[in-house]
Write a structure and sequence with these properties.
Among the domains are: 5-161 and 191-222, no CATH class; 256-282 and 289-336; 443-619, OB fold (Dihydrolipoamide Acetyltransferase, E2P); 626-637 and 647-658 and 682-704, no CATH class. Strands 1, 2, 3, 4, 5, 6, 11, 13, 14, 19, 20, 21 and 22 form a 13-stranded mixed beta sheet that branches. A 5-stranded mixed beta sheet has the order 24-23-26-27-25, with no helix packed on it. A 5-stranded antiparallel beta sheet has the order 28-29-30-31-32, with no helix packed on it. The chain has 12 helices and 37 strands. With 870 residues, the chain is α+β, with helices and mostly antiparallel strands.
Amino acid sequence: MLNNIFRALDQLGITPQKRAIHIQFSNPILNAQVFLQRIDGQHEINQGIRAELICLSTDATIPLKQFIGSQVAVDQVTDSGQLFRTTGIIIQALQGQSDGSLSLYKLTLEDPTTLWKKRRNSRVFMNKTVVNVIEIVFKEWQQKSPLFAASLSLDLSGLSQNYDARPFIMQHNETDYEFLTRLLRSEGINWLIDEAQLIVPNSSAAIQPQKLRLIDDNSQYQALARRQIRYHRSSATEQYDSMTSLIGQRSLQPNSVHIQRWQADALEQEQGAGSVQSTHQHSAHYDNASLGLEDAWHFSPAWMQDLNGEDGATASGNSQIEKLNQNLGHYHDLQSKYFTAQSTVRDTQVGYWFQLIEHPEIDQHSGSDQEFLITGKSYYNQNNLPKDLNQQINQLLQQSHWQNANTQTNTEERQANTLTLQRRSIKIVPEYHPQQHRPSVHPQRAKVVSPSGEEIHVDEWGRIKVRFLFTRNEDHEHDGGAGTNDNDTDSAWVDVLTPWAGEGYGARFLPRIDEIVVIDFFDGNIDRPFVVGRIHEAQRSPTKFDNAGKLPDTKKLAGIKSKEYQGEGFNQLRFDDTTGQISAQLQSSHAASQLNLGKLSYPKDQAESEDRGEGFELRTDQWGAVRAGEGLLITTHAQAQAEGEHLDAQPAKQQLEGNQANAKALSEVAKNQQTDEIESLDQLKAFADEIEADIAKFNKAMLLLSSPAGIGLSTNEDIHLSADGQINQFAGDSINLSTQKNLVAHVSGKVSLFAAQGGIKQVAAKGKFEVQAQGDGMDLLAKQGIQIISTEDRIEITSPKEIVITAGGSQIKLDGSGIFPTTGGKFEVKAGQHLFMGAASVSVPAIDLPDCSAKQADAAKNGSAKVILD
């Protein structure tokens, strides 16, 4: 053959006017080298276009990469002589056998969305509708891929509904095709690849970009230009194309749909309208209810927008359940009945409808029951070549082991197609099976983020914001970098799993900025992430109790340690399970405030540390308080293995009662000796009675200190004892007072001292010993002698009125009138000299004793225990 395939065909009489199909490449070099012999194609709503092209060339050395990425248009001559165009991109090229004069090439044509299948990505979107996401990704493709931009445009005119703004959408290890079609399926939006120009004036007309039409309502589908298709036999003598076969197909499908999911803000399982019965009659023998074929789904929880509504996301609710319920029901109806038609009509186009006429059964219907929407098309067409050339081509096909899918479809027809049809009135929706169309997900890492300056950023539910580690800056430029900004714009609010979550109670450990958290997904839904835990890695070392040590050296320590917000302090609950040093500690680093229990030891930076005591220690470098509103017992009475009641104060009660009995006996002795009884005996008994023996509790909010081995009070400063009632001291032995300075006792009432045995001794080693009765008399009584002795100075007895000395019936009285001795016996005076002189008198010095009575009265009137003496 000649060097140029078209020149050779022209010589065989196969001129362009006699060709049934034409091909045009965007690569002009190929247009002069390649002749299209046959096309086998498939086209479906919610799928796309794919076709195999068998091409001829006299050049066996065309580089295959010349084909790859080339736009191509295939024009089929219709029964009216028009050119019906199908375009696409060559995504695969195979070189077949060559016999020296003729070479075969098999090319695979697909629509431009096939490029989406070649790019896999992971990214996030916040507060976007599905349509928003489609537009964003589509625009990015147009900017990044000249081939895509030249091959496909986006047509949203077929959308008639409003779509929810979702707070969070994630693409994860999905191709863009998987991702975008998943979103479209979830909203019940159909996608259709259509031609910008179905009919072209000539085969050299410029290749126009195809259209990706998004459609959500059947009214948006257009009618074929011919509008009607005739049902008629097909033969070579027929002038016009027709439909030759129409077969209806029915299958049993679920006839009701029930959707339920968790609605977090309502705290309940949401079920929408419940089980919704299909209006489509599936069987002539049973109604839908009696068939009971329910498609019941438990979906992942409803999305939860910002609780304050600040993110602009649509609030979740029943509307989403009802919409999904309807879409699933529509799809089951689609699958339950459809039609398959055999046709020779070359200009049938998927996504267009027509009226079927001259069909014996369909003609009995009227209106929309005669109108059919083409949802799928499988077709073939080929050029009619001379017999010898056909045989040559077939032999090369066999040698190449290439089989055409439709070669044997209809041996009498040069071209034909199989159409999948739905009545135009039946709602078209894409298939949506969440378990199949969602990506497979597994736990992954994320980093906690927050606004600038905030270490902890949560909402009212304790949800956090994270940055998913797979996000890249170039994928998130569309939204100001949201997703990669390392702040609160990088995600929607994400739930945090907690081991305990009651109404206002539970466990709360909120993740903090830059912590690495582990993310899982509710029901395997990539758009419903939640935090299951946190991980220590690299420089983010595991918990260091007391800011000391590291694993595995400190592996015997367990517990919880927090960190001061924007500071270096901490709180910790530490359990030390070291053999022989088992202990527990509750600590705040502020003022080293600690409660230490068990075998106390120093903070560990190795496996063991030195002991520092046993038992418990409550300590702080600042102030401390122990407060118990119903009573407090502090005791050193042992209670082995904590087997008794925690307020068991029987030893103290018994000791108090014993001392009360001793004091009562002594008080009786004092009473017999005509001195004052102890007034507080009843109070002491009442105090002891407040200690319950059987149920080990206090009946009043009292403080009880008790020890079998002594109680010591010691301070470098003062000790203050104060009581609005009485202060009682009882001892089975002595009460000893000793001071290095003064002992001062002030009593508003009286002072009464009684010594049953052994007497009373008061000694002033230095200084004056002074006793005064400022408001009354003074009595000194002794059963035996009374001695008044001054060892170095005089003894002075003074009275402003009278002094009387009486003994054994004799008396000396001294007053202002004179001195009057009186005796019934001898009056004897011995002196070395007797001098009797004239009268004289001695003045008595005035002694001013303070008067306390008025002040006592005032104090009693005011209810004060203090009397202030000026």
